Target: Proteasome subunit beta
Amino acid sequence: MDPRPVNAATAGHGGNAAAFFAPGSPSFTDFVAATAPHLLPGRFAEGMAVGSSQAGALNVPHGTTIVALVCSEGVVIAGDRRATMGNVIAQRDVEKVFITDAYSAVGFAGTAGIGTELVRLFAVDLEHYEKIEGVPLSLDGKANKLAGMVRQNLGAALQGFVALPLFVGYDPEEPDPAKAGRIVSFDVTGSRADEQLAGYHAIGSGSVFAKSALKKRHDVAADLATTLRNAVEALYDAADDDTATGGPDATRRIFPVVVSITGAEGAVRRSEEEIAEIAAEVLAVRAEKPGG
Model:
């Protein structure tokens, strides 16, 4: 008799129980694709075929603007908190930026449900790989893994359920902290692009306004404190011109989610108090000079 315990998930799969103990790829996503593909993000419900009018008619919440900036100490990623359905605000405090492991984080724009599941599955995949292999996946490996997951969502994306991630990471093997921060963007087909030339990037409906602000304000040689403020201010500028992007809401105390990744601290979600203080400074300046 096999001495290993059989948990509820294993027992529930009946004939597939052996798959849980069979050697194979260290990728958790590959395992789910082989044993329960209907659980992957972007898969349509049973009876809803790709190309059906039923799929395209769904009105679901969408998340918008995410910004990422490289600085002298690492990299910062930030996202606003608004989700919309057409011209309606669906949620004011949605979170679209997540820490995925000790040295990486991901934000997403697009269909909120698919984006959230995509990022959560990515985080589980990174943890699973590290447990199986005994070492974390390399920074390029993480970006390539995420690119493959985006590509798997292409069928849903063709129906309008697009969710695009923005990946940031820090390479602890890089001796120069100023070069260790990385930003990687993706298109709907899963093609990746390293955003190293400008040192910043943004995605979502407010991205054009955020990037315009960062083009004038951002400096890759800036310290972390300055970069945090630039990220919050870029989201403020995006919200100023894009109705789908939510700015800092002092009344409800809803502020952007901001994550910094440095060699000294790793990936850290900045506290609400810290971001509230930065937002208050930005609002005070804009009260005197609305254009920034």
